[in-house]
Amino acid sequence: MDAIVKMLEKHQPFFEKISRNVYLQAIKDGFLGCMPIVLTSSIFLLIATLPGVVGITLPQPLIDWCNKLYNFTMGVMGIMVAGTTAKNFTASMNRRMPAGKVLNDGSTMVAAQCSMLLLAVTQFTTKFNGSELSVFDCTSMGTRGLFSAYIAAFITVWVYKFCVSRDLTIKLPKEVPGAIAQNFRDIIPFGGAVIICGIIDVVVRNLMGVPFSELLIKLLSPLFTAAETYPGLILIQAATAFFWFIGVHGPSIVQPGIDPIRLANQAENLQVLLAGGHPAHSLTFNMSLVGEFGGTGATFIVPFLLILFMKSKQLKAVGKASIVPVAFAVNEPLLFGAPMILNPYMLIPFVAAGCVNVSVAKFFIDNVGMNGFSFVVPWATPAPIGIFITTNFQLIALVFVAIIILLDAIIYLPFLKAYDKLLCDQEAERAAELGLESDGAAAIAASTSAPAVEQTTASVEPTAAAADSKPVADQTEPAADASAKKDVDGLKVLVLCAGAGTSAMLANAIKEGAAQTGENIASSAGAYGQHTAIMDQYDVIVLAPQVRSYYNDMKADTDRLGIKLLAPRGKEYIDLTRDPAGAIKWLRENLD
Fold first, then answer.
1. Where are the alpha helices (DSSP H) in 2-104?
2. How far is the C-alpha of 147 from the C-alpha of 81, rounded, in Å?
3. Omega within 30 of 0 (cis) for the link into 378
4. Contact 153, 30 (CB under 8 A)
5. In the chain, what are the helix, strand and coil shares in percent, each to the nearest 5?
6. Of 68, 269, 349, 584, which is least packed with CB atoms within 10 Å of its CB?
7. Cα–Cα distance, 44 to 260 (Å, whole number)
């Protein structure tokens, strides 16, 4: 097992390179920027539909109003994703542009949305009350048009890059105000992007008889069908957990490619449910509640196992500290505290548990009558509650939840027991070395951490994330004493992670530490990919371990804006979230 982990560590830079791919990043961040659409529209849908489950009949005007809000948010999500994807892809492209040449992300955003409409939407005329009307087919404006959105975004930004790099723009005299001059400079690349997508639309419609969005669905349908089989679901879940195990944020790599079909399937499930049928799609957006039951690795039950069955003081402490975050799918305290990432004892259960969960879910949907997931709930919803809601409050869903909790416990317990024995032996050895009683409780509690944790956690750090592969905190000499502490008055700190869950833990610790020490420090949490519009308002940006592989890209932006960038190691980050005063001290020590 150790040999396998060493092999994985050897290839970690390659996997990190995949996770930093500019196209995957743009898709992930573009979709993340539209998550408010998904979550807000789902609220109105729940208002319109769920009361009927318990026999409450709402006034029809209220139902119609809620459905309208859903249709004009979720129903045009494809258009919005085209814009946000183009905006994020533009930011990545600007880092690679020659000095003095910058792409206008506002213009690329609008151009991508127009181009997406050309690729995905059909216009036709119809008669209404005796008059001819021009009508848009809205089918592909929503989640069905996501592939068209991505293609439009990439084409648009590349056309802008081509034109701006070669000065193919309309130049006005310097006396013309900058905002007006910029609009004229964007005419040629804007027109070029729209024309190219318009030509693609004409060619596809004439040769294939369908809009571009339907062509992609038709060509990729065998892949989608394969993805919804048992092997397909297992492969998706195994890849997600595998990448996280080696220290690369797995969902960022796996999910962008399947999000369009997951959302489309969930929307189709909803329509079937509202029509009184059985929603049968298993590959849906909220299947992550099952495969990532408590976070990647299906770790919901693990804190309970650590508290109830482990003897190691380290594991019991980790279990107590992580039980609440893991319940809300924030399992980094567990991943880095136990640790589970790159821990040879945890590889098999970490990958296997989620795979078993999605297989059982498909069996329940196909054979037992459980509904496929139809409603969208926030990712941080406790998994048992989220599963119950999104299956339309079926009692069989509660039986399903109980079964996967039991199965996950059975999968994890033998490996946790083996790891627990190792830690107990090490704790006993340390106690003997310190000349204490056999349990050595006081000394172990006061010491830093068990050697096994240090050894395992040290290997989790990305080797290509920072300029010299050392953590930022290691690159700066600490303050000599308390009197030499640096001024942090008025400091504004932004902490970033993948979904604003882990980052909130450190941001809250910094707030608490500032209150304890009397420092004037403001801290906020955010998701990487949604930071570009607000990052210039902060003095320090901290990258959580799960997004540390983006260090080089972020460093280019922070250096340009004069912002300090910090990227603590995995266990170091978790320790800071538990030590508010220590978080303030750490900030002081790492400021120039």
1. 2-10, 12-19, 22-33, 35-49, 60-71, 77-94
2. 10
3. no
4. yes
5. 65, 5, 25
6. 68
7. 22
pLDDT tens series, the chain, 592 aa: 556 556 655 655 665 666 677 887 888 788 778 878 877 887 787 787 767 656 677 888 888 898 888 888 888 888 999 999 999 999 889 888 887 788 999 999 999 999 999 998 888 788 777 788 878 887 788 877 888 899 999 999 999 999 998 888 887 777 667 667 777 888 999 999 999 999 999 998 888 888 887 776 666 667 666 788 999 999 999 988 988 887 666 776 777 777 778 888 888 898 898 888 999 999 998 888 999 999 889 999 999 999 999 999 889 988 998 898 888 888 878 887 788 887 888 889 999 999 999 999 999 999 999 999 988 887 778 999 999 999 988 999 999 999 999 999 999 999 999 888 888 887 787 777 666 444 544 444 444 444 343 333 333 333 333 333 334 444 444 433 433 344 556 889 999 987 777 888 899 999 999 998 888 889 999 888 778 778 888 999 999 887 887 888 888 888 888 899 999 887 788 889 888 999 998 988 888 6
* Residue from 114, 163, 197, 497 carrying the catalytic annotation: 497
Phi then psi for residue 426, to 5 deg, are -70, -40
Q: 523 and 511 in contact (C-beta within 8 Å)?
A: yes
DSSP characters over 178-213: HHHHHHHHTHHHHHHHHHHHHHHHHHHHHHHSS-HH
Q: Is 355 a catalytic residue?
A: no
Parallel/antiparallel/unpaired status of strands 540-543 and 491-497: parallel
Alpha helix segments (H runs only) across 209-293: 212-227, 230-245, 250-274, 288-291
Q: How far apart are CA 226 and CA 312, in angstroms?
A: 44
Token pair of 178, please?
A: 């900058």
